[in-house]
């Protein structure tokens, strides 16, 4: 049976998207919920997964091509490839050379930045004795803002884990012992174990969401998909097994029974604790106020439609909304230096450079990587920079250098459907701009009613340093720039 693979429904504020990465080729055998393709919008990357076990028969849209919501991008033949997938994978793995037990290597925490005192062992992806290949991710180590990955120095196996999950560690601390060259000696068992590790590290979005909702750990669920992959059916089957459910949950968090209902307590991650602390500090230590305006997005939408194809052909990247937002904000910051300043004790520090934080939603929480020197970037440079930060945020690859600094923040809740919000300051910054859902509304234009794509703007600012006149003027400048994009080119 042929199934059409389509682009997901895009939010109203997102006009189109582009094919970022195909993870499969025509003829590849895939299992249900396996990620087929990453589709990139202005700010988020969407994953499209296989609807069932089967084979990709046709791919209509290549990487880099612009696509619309619900557009067919591939054909999928259900039920063709699951039967022979396991033997083929075993055969491929068995061709790897086996090695003898070699030298012992200490696995250490990476050197931490000066501003980071310690870190926490978040997740071990391997167990002692398990066959490991060179550059395979061994462990995630979480700091206040970023997650660091420690990879295997060579083929081999862990002989001992010295720092379990949840333990606080310091820079260059030894957390495990590794034996090089010993991982392939258990050749018959290694393919299944390694495949299981790889598959479980790449759970599909629907499975990850279901696990999070039900408070389950994927490592406690036996996967029946390709290579031991955990599928939605495996999770649902685990939920239906009353005897196994408490045992699986008790290792990660205590479950308290309240009659027919239960509660579960899970410790906050370091990143979530840091987010909570900083948001509370912003509310308690600043005189925060929010002012609003609205902008007609039709001129920008018309401009993008007119030049999208030639822009993408010349620069190799889509022209999105965020580049216009960043350009408009940069120009407004030049005109209102108070908004580009911050309070340091009893001093006001005016920044003569333009580094803008872009709020990015990741599986571990909200982060704000910094796009630096935006005054020197063209539209293509801004789009490329935002795309790189969004992909790194999704994959947990952001560095401390990319997270530090920033004089002003842009957050776009519109991609998730938010119509209006009051964003909270990103300390020590003095202002943050919230962009929202683009929605058709009846507007009075020259005495007549017209239906226009409108978007609310929200500027939250610290009233200790920014007065009402500056805040309103700043927001009006952004509105004027977005409603007449020619101003961005002519500097008027």
UniProtKB/TrEMBL annotation:
Domain of life where this protein originates: Bacteria
Cofactor(s) needed for function: (R)-lipoate
GO cellular component labels: cytosol; oxoglutarate dehydrogenase complex
Cited SUPFAM superfamilies: CoA-dependent acyltransferases (SSF52777), Peripheral subunit-binding domain of 2-oxo acid dehydrogenase complex (SSF47005), Single hybrid motif (SSF51230)
Functional pathway: Amino-acid degradation; L-lysine degradation via saccharopine pathway; glutaryl-CoA from L-lysine: step 6/6
A GO biological process held by the record: tricarboxylic acid cycle
EC number of the protein: 2.3.1.61
Keyword Transferase: yes
Catalytic activity: N(6)-[(R)-dihydrolipoyl]-L-lysyl-[protein] + succinyl-CoA = N(6)-[(R)-S(8)-succinyldihydrolipoyl]-L-lysyl-[protein] + CoA
Recorded GO MF terms: dihydrolipoyllysine-residue succinyltransferase activity
Span of domain Lipoyl-binding: 2-77, 104-179
Residues in Peripheral subunit-binding (PSBD) domain copies: 202-239
Composition-biased stretches (Polar residues): 89-101
Region of interest called Disordered, as start-end residue ranges on this chain: 80-104, 218-253
Enzyme type, top EC level: transferase
Alphabetical keyword list: Acyltransferase, Lipoyl, Transferase, Tricarboxylic acid cycle
Primary role: E2 component of the 2-oxoglutarate dehydrogenase (OGDH) complex which catalyzes the second step in the conversion of 2-oxoglutarate to succinyl-CoA and CO(2).
Record PANTHER family: DIHYDROLIPOYLLYSINE-RESIDUE SUCCINYLTRANSFERASE COMPONENT OF 2-OXOGLUTARATE DEHYDROGENASE COMPLEX, MITOCHONDRIAL, DIHYDROLIPOYLLYSINE-RESIDUE SUCCINYLTRANSFERASE COMPONENT OF 2-OXOGLUTARATE DEHYDROGENASE COMPLEX, MITOCHONDRIAL-RELATED
Family: Belongs to the 2-oxoacid dehydrogenase family.
Protein name per UniProt: Dihydrolipoyllysine-residue succinyltransferase component of 2-oxoglutarate dehydrogenase complex
